[in-house]
Amino acid sequence: MNTADPVDDEASEHPKQRVFRHVRYRMSRSEKFIAVMLFIGVIVLVLIPFTFIVIPAGHVGVLYRLLRHGTETRFVYHEGLGIKWPFDRIYTYEVRTKTLDESVHALAQVGLSVQVQVSVLYHPVPDNAGKLHQEIGYDYVERVVRPISLGAVRDIVGKSDPHDLYRINVEELESRILAKMHRSPAAAGLIFFERVVVRDIVLPTAVNDSINRKLTEEQNAQTYKFLIAQAQDEAERKRIEAIGIQTFYSIVANSLTPQLLTWRGIEATVQLSNSSNSKIVVVGGGKDQLPLILGSDIAKQPDLPAPAVVDPQSHQLPPWRELPKLFPKAGGEGGSGSESRGGSIGPGNDRSSSQAASQGTKKP
C-alpha cells in the first residue's frame, strides 16, 4: 500500500497552486463578511427613497397599500418624516387655503344675462384626505370645487332681480352663495369652503343705464324735498320776523310825537350838512324851517303830553310754541298740541296769527 507523504505533496505542488489555495482561504473568512456588508449597504441605499418619506409643510400624505386594501382612509401622514414599505406609495395633498377665481355668466329672474366675478377660498379637510383621494382624486378642483362654485352662484343670481343685485349688500350675497356651497353633498366633509368674495357684478348696459337714471331721479326728489322743507322754515322765520316788527312799531307808535319828529328832523339836517359828499340841503319854508321830507304839517300838530314809560310786561311777544304752524308736518310730529289746531293753511290761520300778535302788543 503506497501512501503519499504530505510534505512531498506540498513540495511537488506548483507554486501558483499554493498561492491560489491560500488566497481562497482568506476570502472565505474576512473578505466574505465585507462583501456581504457592502451588498447590504447598497440595497439599503437603493431602498431609502422608497422606504423613508418626507411630508412638506402644509401638506398631508395619503398611504396606498399595494398588497393590502389599497388607500388608507383611517389616518394620514402629517408634516415630517415617515416610514413605509418600499412597495407602498404616498400621495401628498396641500391643505393650505387656496383661491379659485371664476367669472360666472348667470341668468337673472327676468332672463337678463349677468356676469359675476367671484373668488372662492377653500382647502381640503386634512383628516379626510384619504377619503378625498379615494373618492375624487388629485383633480378635485375640476371635479368638485369649480362645479359647486358655478352652480351656487348661478342658483343665487337666478333667484334675484337685476335691480336687487344692484342694491343688495355684497356681504349678504356672499353669505347666501357660501351657504349654498356648504349644503352641497359632493364636498361634505372633504372640502371646506372658507369664504366667497364677489369682486364685481356686471349688468347689461341698458339695465345699468336705467338703474342709474332711476337713482338719479330719486336723488333729485330728495333734493326737492329738502328745498321745500327749507322754504317752509324760511316762511316760518319771516313770519316770526314780521310779528317782531309789528310789535316794535306798535311800541314806537306811542312815542312818535311832533316834538320828537321835529328833533329827529333837526338831527337829520345836521348830519346831512356835516357829510363830506356833495349835497343840496332843502329847508322847508315854514317858521320851523325843517327839511321838506318831514312835510309842512308837522309843526301844526297839536301839543300832546309826553308819552308814559313803556311797560315791558304790556308789550310781550306772543308764545312762539303756541302759535299755529304755517306748514304742519304730517303724522304724529305735527298733530300734537297747538300745531294740530293749525293744520290747514288759509286766511283763518293768518287772522289767528295777527290776533295773537296784536294781543301781544296791545297796551293794557
TrEMBL record:
Pfam families with a match to the protein in the record: Band_7
Record field: compositional bias (Polar residues): 350-364
Transmembrane regions listed in the UniProt entry: 33-55
Main location: membrane
The keyword Cell cycle belongs to this UniProt entry's keyword annotation: no
Record's keyword terms, sorted: Membrane, Transmembrane, Transmembrane helix
Region feature Disordered, mapped onto this chain: 304-364
Record-annotated Band domain positions: 54-235
Membrane topology per record: Single-pass membrane protein
Keyword Metal-binding: no
Location(s), subcellular: Membrane
Top-level lineage group: Bacteria
Entry GO terms, CC: membrane
GO biological process terms, semicolon-separated: mitochondrion organization
Protein name: Peptidase
